[in-house]
User: Which sequence fits this backbone?
C-alpha cells in the first residue's frame, strides 16, 4: 500500500483493528470483532465512497452479497415456474428453428417467447 494514500492508510488501519479484535477473542468473527456496523475494506479504490457502512453478515458471507444486500432464496413457486418455462422454451425453440439453428421463416423471437409463455401456462395447469 502507498504510504501517502489516505484511502490505503484508512484500509490498513481498519484491517489492523479487525486483526486486534479477532486476536482479543471477540467471538471469532469479523462482525463480532468490530461490533455492529462496520466499514467495508473492499470499498477502497472502487469508485465508491470510502468506508461505506455495511452489516457484518455481508462481510462474512461475501459470496452472497449483491450490491450491499444478502441474496434472498427463491420460492418453490418461482423455481417451478422457471423450470417449466425453460422446458417450454426448449420445446418451442425446437419447433421454430432449423437444423442449423436459424429461425424459420414466419417466426420471430417475439413469437417464440409468446408461444413459450403460452406453453408454460398450459404445462403449469
Assistant:
Amino acid at each position: 500500500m502507498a504510504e501517502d494514500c489516505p484511502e490505503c492508510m484508512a484500509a490498513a488501519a481498519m484491517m489492523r483493528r479487525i486483526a486486534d479484535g479477532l486476536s482479543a477473542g471477540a467471538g471469532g468473527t469479523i462482525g463480532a470483532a468490530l461490533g455492529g456496523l462496520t466499514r467495508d475494506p473492499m470499498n477502497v479504490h472502487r469508485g465508491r465512497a470510502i468506508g461505506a457502512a455495511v452489516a457484518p453478515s455481508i462481510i462474512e458471507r461475501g459470496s452472497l452479497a449483491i450490491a450491499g444486500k444478502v441474496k434472498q432464496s427463491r420460492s418453490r413457486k418461482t423455481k417451478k415456474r422457471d423450470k417449466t418455462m425453460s422446458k417450454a422454451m426448449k420445446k418451442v425453440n425446437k419447433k421454430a428453428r432449423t437444423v442449423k439453428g436459424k429461425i424459420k421463416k414466419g417466426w420471430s423471437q417475439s413469437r417464440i417467447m409468446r408461444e413459450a409463455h403460452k406453453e408454460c401456462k398450459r404445462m403449469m395447469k
